[in-house]
Design brief:
- By secondary structure, this protein is mostly helical.
- The protein folds into two domains: 203 residues, Growth Hormone, Chain: A, CATH 1.20.1250.20; 195 residues, MFS general substrate transporter like domains (Growth Hormone, Chain: A), CATH 1.20.1250.
- It has 18 helices and four strands.
- Strands 1-2 form a two-stranded antiparallel ribbon. A two-stranded antiparallel sheet has the order 3-4.
- α2 runs antiparallel to α7, α2 packs antiparallel against α9 and α11 runs antiparallel to α15.
- The longest helix has 37 residues.
């Protein structure tokens, strides 16, 4: 009987009959994957996807209870914002140099260190006896999350072949989305019935389950090069002086300030203090918002390829600003739930922003550009909760007042106006020979924002003429091939 291939990275032995006997290293956690007749590459990605699921689920399962948990230790609204925002600060510390660390020490080793750091932070949080311990735990969690995610993506790229990379990476993305969508609901229900510490215990168990999967079954390809790569500050200086990239960064910053400042800080305090929402109900609302955002990801990405990235970022900023303005003015939990779900959908419209950033980045600096994009995301993730928490504490009476939400609205609308000036390369085609001094120098037809000028019209006509000649040549070639085939058929 044919034997199934061993798991990716599993140890194998040969018996006296020379048949392979597998050591089921994942039997205690992954019996299905261990026995499944999968290609080793697919099995490795599946194991890695489960690790990403465990981490995303654990990170989101604690979101609904961060406000009451911090208040249990005596935190004010400003300190609650700091507890939530310091996670982003921990990520900021390692976002830029992590690429060089992965290149030097290996992705698997950095992933393992990241997960162990996250586990340590979870244990510190669940046993926190003072506020400073909880803040230190959240900072450590951010550091661990940055190490894990960036190294995990690097390992995923190394173990997948180019022809299968898109399909296999979608498995991991889907698992992360499942964790983001289900985590808040699970955490809210568990906290409602078993206490505020229960979600942290779930986080600990998920981290404990994830570490062996990285340490034992997974391995890096033997040809993965480890070098003494250094952090290149010059590339980031080049990116910072690019006006278009700067405007896209500002838009991204506004989205993440709004998302983490409003959704995970302001809305939590508002729901508990103004409306008396339970932890389970708040977790369900946050989960539904993630579902609404997830549903829009693919169709918005498809439409942005046809109509450009800028319109959708503009819509995301303006529509979410309207919802943020209405949130502190709702009078019941049902209205708040509707507003949160609509907000999730509005935020989901900004999905193609990384593609816009990649379109604008110089070819030689796209890796660094994505690192800077993530760096700006995490700055917004750190500053948003702190800013909203301070404003709530300064303006509240016996209830949360609208001013902190209105301040975020003004920031979003101001940046929405600014990005109108940003270049969006996805509007019309341009002949690369007509580009002078531009960033992109590819041999294929480049895409740029149409200005309605005579040059743009001429470029479009030139492109259509070339397209017509190519299609005509293609038809002529196909006709000649058919004629040749018919002559060969008739020949004796």
């Amino acid at each position: 009987m044919p034997t199934t291939p061993p798991p990716y990275g599993a140890k194998v032995t040969r018996s006296k009959h020379n048949s392979i006997q597998r050591i089921p290293v994942t039997l205690y956690l992954l019996p299905i994957l261990d026995r499944a007749k999968m290609h080793p590459e697919t099995r490795a990605v599946s194991v890695l996807a489960i690790v990403f699921l465990f981490h995303a689920l654990g990170r989101n399962v604690i979101l609904p209870i961060m406000t009451p948990y911090a208040r249990q230790l005596g935190a004010s609204e400003a300190i609650v914002g700091a507890v939530i925002g310091v996670f982003g600060l921990g990520r900021v510390l390692f976002d830029l140099p992590i690429g060089a660390m992965v290149q030097k020490y290996g992705a698997k080793r950095i992933m393992s260190i990241g997960l162990i750091t996250v586990l340590t932070s979870s244990i510190l949080a669940v046993t926190a006896f003072e506020l400073w311990v909880l803040i230190a735990a959240r900072l450590l969690e951010g550091v661990g999350a940055s190490l894990f995610y960036i190294a995990g993506l690097a390992l995923l790229a190394r173990i997948t072949s180019p022809e299968k990379r898109g399909r296999l990476m979608s498995i991991t993305s889907g698992m992360v989305d499942i964790g983001i969508m289900s985590g808040p609901a699970i955490g809210g229900v568990v906290a409602e019935f078993y206490g505020l510490s229960a979600p942290f215990y779930i986080y600990v168990l998920l981290s404990v389950a994830a570490i062996p999967l990285v340490v034992y079954p997974l391995r890096e390809p033997e040809d993965a090069e480890k070098t003494g790569a250094k952090f290149n500050l010059g590339i980031f200086k080049e990116l910072l002086v690019n006006r278009d990239l700067l405007l896209v960064n500002l838009a991204t910053f506004a989205i993440f300030v709004s998302r983490f400042g409003v959704m995970y800080t302001g809305v939590s305090i508002l729901a508990y203090d103004n409306l008396g929402v339970s932890k389970a109900a708040l977790g369900g609302m946050l989960g539904l918002a993630s579902v609404a955002s997830f549903i829009l990801l693919y169709p918005i990405g498809y439409l942005s390829d046809r109509f450009g990235r800028k319109p959708f970022m503009f819509m995301a900023l303006c529509s979410s600003a309207i919802v943020v303005f209405l949130m502190p003015r709702v009078t019941d939990a049902n209205s708040l739930a509707i507003a949160i779900v609509i907000y999730g959908a509005a935020i989901g419209v900004h999905g193609p922003t990384p593609a816009w950033f990649t379109d604008l980045a110089p070819t030689h600096a796209r890796g660094s550009a994505m690192g800077m994009y993530r760096f700006v995301n995490d700055i917004g993730q750190a500053l948003g909760p702190i800013m909203v928490g301070i404003l709530i504490e300064l303006t509240r009476t016996d209830m949360v007042q609208p001013f902190p939400f209105d301040f975020i609205v003004v920031v979003q609308l101001a940046i929405a106006v600014l990005i109108i000036k940003a270049r969006d390369p996805r509007f019309s085609f341009q002949n690369p020979r007509e580009q002078k001094g531009g960033i992109e120098t590819a041999n294929s037809y480049q895409i740029h924002e149409s200005s309605g000028s005579l040059n743009s019209v001429q470029s479009s006509k030139s492109f259509l003429n070339r397209l017509w000649l190519q299609s005509k040549n293609h038809v002529t070639t196909a006709t000649q091939e058919e004629a040749n085939c018919s002559r060969k058929t008739k020949a004796p």
